[in-house]
Design goal:
The protein is mostly beta strands. It folds into 2 domains: about 35 residues; about 220 residues, Jelly Rolls (Sandwich), CATH 2.60.120.200. Helix content is about 15%, strand content about 35%. The protein has 2 helices and 14 strands; from the N terminus they run αβββββββββββββαβ. The radius of gyration is 24 Å and the shape is globular. The relative contact order is 0.20.
Length: about 260
């Protein structure tokens, strides 16, 4: 083959390869622009993508609770963001919510994990904060509520309630609920301790099996609490959280329970 013909063929191969590369790059860019719906198998939020000093409402799909739930910094580990729940002096039970779509795992379970740190102490009694996990009809799988330094398991507003747990002050506490859609029992854990279980279907017949809404906000009279505050971070709803990050919490003894999944690097 003549040298100049071979050169032309090689140049043709290079041009073809360049075209293929450009087409592939364009397809990757196009895929990146397409919004991918949240996985039905889990929902996670560490609040790092949001603007600190602003209400959580209006960021990342969260709505409501504009005056009581705020993005602040730092979050867990002294980095990133978390959310602060305070009482605004006027509202009662103001909630910030996010629609989700989390189905049970192969064992019929949905795991719900928060990190919670008591902040500013209130000047009075009553409750400061609460969080809810509901189905599509607003029926409640599980709920945490308490004053600034307590967390108490409950199902909705019914009489099903367990003894309160005193949160460790100045550190992040791990609150976990295991929702079993086979037995209809929500089992509550705090820092690895089993606080007991409640049957969420007792007063709520016809509950669905899919978690459809997560919410958090103030609970109780704001003036009675004198401006209490609590901080929440690393929300996970879905399968059992991975235990690999428990070392960061200094709680290796809980590794077998697999309570926390860390999403922040």
């Amino acid at each position: 083959m003549l040298p100049y013909i071979a050169s032309i063929q090689e140049e043709g191969k290079e041009v073809c390869f360049l075209r293929q590369t450009l087409v592939l790059a364009a397809l990757v860019a196009l895929c990146a622009m397409v919004a991918v719906p949240a996985s039905a198998s889990g929902f996670d939020d560490n609040f790092d993508a949001y603007i600190p000093g602003m209400p959580l409402s209006g960021q990342g799909g969260w709505v409501g609770g504009e005056t009581t739930v705020t993005v602040v910094t730092p979050g867990y580990g002294g980095v990133g963001n978390c959310v602060r729940i305070t009482q605004d002096g006027t509202s009662l039970g103001s909630q910030c919510s996010h629609g989700i779509n989390v189905a049970p795992d192969a064992n019929g379970q949905i795991w719900w994990t928060w990190l919670v740190k008591p902040g500013q102490a209130g000047g009075g009694g009553g409750n400061c904060w609460d969080t809810w996990l509901n189905d599509a009809d607003g029926k409640n799988f599980a709920r945490w509520y308490g004053a600034w330094n307590t967390a108490r398991p409950r199902i909705d507003g019914f009489g099903q309630v367990l003894a309160g747990y005193t949160l460790k002050q100045g550190v992040w506490n791990v609150l976990t609920v295991r929702v079993d859609t086979n037995t209809h029992i929500s089992e509550f854990f705090a820092n690895g301790a089993d606080l007991g279980g409640l049957n969420y279907s007792t007063n709520q017949p016809g509950m669905g099996n899919v978690a459809a809404l997560i919410s958090m906000g103030q609970q109780g009279n704001s003036q009675g609490n004198g401006g209490s505050a609590d901080y929440l971070d690393n929300l996970h709803i879905g399968d059992i959280p991975e235990p690999s990050s428990l070392a960061a919490f200094g709680m290796l003894g809980l590794a077998a329970l697999g309570f926390v999944r860390r999403r922040r690097a």
